[in-house]
Amino acid sequence: MKCSTLSSMFRLPMFVVLVLCAALSQICAAKVGATAPDFTGTASNGKTFRLADYRGKFVVLEWHNNGCPYVRKQYNSGNMERLQKQWTGQGVVWFTILSSAPGKQGYMTASEENEYLAKMQASPTAALLDPTGEIGHLYDAKTSPHMFVINPQGVVIYDGAIDDKPTTELSDVPGATNYVSLALEQAMAGKQVETAATRPYGCSVKYSDSTH
Amino acid sequence: MLLGALIAPGAGTPIPHGTVELIAEKQGIIAAGHTFDVGLRFQLEKGWHVYWINPGDSGEPARVEWHLPSGLSAGAIEWPTPRRLDSGSIVDYGYEEAVLLIVPMRADGSLAGQSKAQIGADVRVLVCSQEMCIPSKVELSLALPIQSQPALADARKTEMFANARKSLPRPPPGNWKFSVADGNESFVLAATLGHDSAVHPITQAIFFPLAESQIENAAPQKLETSAAGFRLTLRKSDRLLKPIERLRGVLVLSSSPLGNQGYLIDVPVSKAGGARHAVQ
To answer: Which of A132, A208, B174, B251 could form a disulfide linkage to A101, CB 3.0–4.6 angstroms apart?
Structure first.
């Protein structure tokens, strides 16, 4: 059972579900090998996207905060944009998710995010605006970036860092092993994903519940 | 700025929201087989922090690249016991306000012919608040005379190093016994402290894992005390996909007269069953 299922089954407000989820984390957690919790998000382009609509496709989730130096490393080097282009070009659905609360670093209005995407020439399937942190908490996203890969059966097959170089330095991008690409390549070849979970590295996600 | 008021001029090289200084405990090196301590002293504005060797959920520890004359070699950073930096669903491990990271140095005979040794340190450090993180890189240096007699330390540096050593985790007393049981969702760290438990009952215990992705950093650590010791329940990380053989880290125990003390522990993990046994 998933958080969203809980929410719809019992008609509970999402904040109640999130508290339940914290207590019953095993039920709701986005865990490698388990079904990815379903969510519905509103994108910066105004459209609504529901994860469950993309069964049959690989889905990448990318937690984003454009003020974070670890995110800037990936975007200013062109790496994240390149990955988005490469994988969406192969039919992968890519959601960039912004869970920063209003007033916190990385919070963007729809038009600000659209401008940012255009300026960076970023091409995710959609940038989902999650200022309440609902999707972020559902996946227990810790950092920006924090990456998840979901297979066509809707199962989480990767949870963790973007690559194996946990630094802010652009010069570390070219030599890094990219765990997202590796997971997608291995899963598409019908293989087991070798590195299925790593410590996500980066800035903490700037949720509304953080203490300051 | 506030910084100017808090930190004396000349006390270090600026980093975002603070300073860092390369200092030696004693103002001189005795060549040939001598070991001595240097340190990186970070001073930070209120609300900013740097990280432990395992930074927890976010962040990154300071890294240093040494530039040393031949005849000098640097050991690893001795990391003081960290604090939990809690921002709701995310918990990091690090240091606020000020920290001295001690690094042991070793001199060999080949230094003898020279009058001084130039020690260079390229330091990369991430300084964060709850709101943002700022990376920086600074180049520090320190010249130490090479001499035949032990150098006297100034009182201020002696005190800084003594305080830093007090904050290092130490080995637990030999009569304490630890075990870790591997349950489905948690590790249960059990300790018997013998006589010590009765004399100074434990009021709080916090475990800091040395390895990443073993325990859920943000989960509460449930403490149950008994006459003989205590048990501490540590929720496993969702990203721990394989069994682990050992749990290594710093265990900070609080007891009312003694205050907080960090102990470095390295405990083999046994399969559940043992855990259930201990519950009853």
So the answer is: A208
Residue type, B146: I
The answer, yes or no, to whether the previous bond of A145 is cis (omega within 30 of 0) is yes
Tens digit of each residue's pLDDT (9 = 90 or more) over B202-233: 999 999 999 999 999 999 999 999 988 999 99
Considering only alpha carbons, which residue of chain A is nearest residue B87? A210
Cα separation, B256 vs B199, in Å, equals: 10
**Shortest Cα–Cα distance, A38 to chain B (Å):** 18
pLDDT in tens, B26-46: 988 777 778 999 999 999 999
Spell out the residues 6+ positions from residue B247 whose beta carbon is closer than 8 angstroms to its own: B180, B187, B189, B209, B214, B265, B266, B267, B269
ipTM of the modeled complex: 0.88
Q: What is the pLDDT of residue A7?
A: 47
Residues in chain B within 8 Å Cβ distance of A201: 58, 60
The verdict on a CB contact (< 8 Å) between B130 and A212 is yes
Residues A132 and A180: their CA atoms lie apart, in Å, by 26
Cross-chain Cβ contact A29/B213 below 8 Å:
no
pLDDT digit string, tens, across residues A72-87: 999 999 999 999 999 9
Q: Inter-chain contact A196–B241, Cβ cutoff 8 Å?
A: yes
Q: Name all domains of chain A by residue range, CATH numbers in brackets.
A: 29-204 (3.40.30.10)
Q: How far apart are CA A150 and CA A143, in angstroms?
A: 18
* CATH, residue B224: 2.60.40
What is the pTM for the complete model shown? 0.90
Each residue's pLDDT tens digit, A24-39? 444 567 899 999 999 9
Query: In chain B, what residues touch A183 (CB-CB under 8 Å)?
Result: none
Indicate the number of domains in chain B.
2
Domain co-membership, B191 together with B160: no
- Same domain flag for B105 and B209: no
Q: Tell me: do B242 and B215 sit in the same domain.
A: yes
- Whether B59 and B134 map to the same domain: the answer is yes
Q: Are residues B18 and B90 both part of a single domain?
A: yes
Facing B239 at nearest CB: one of A26, A199, A207: A199
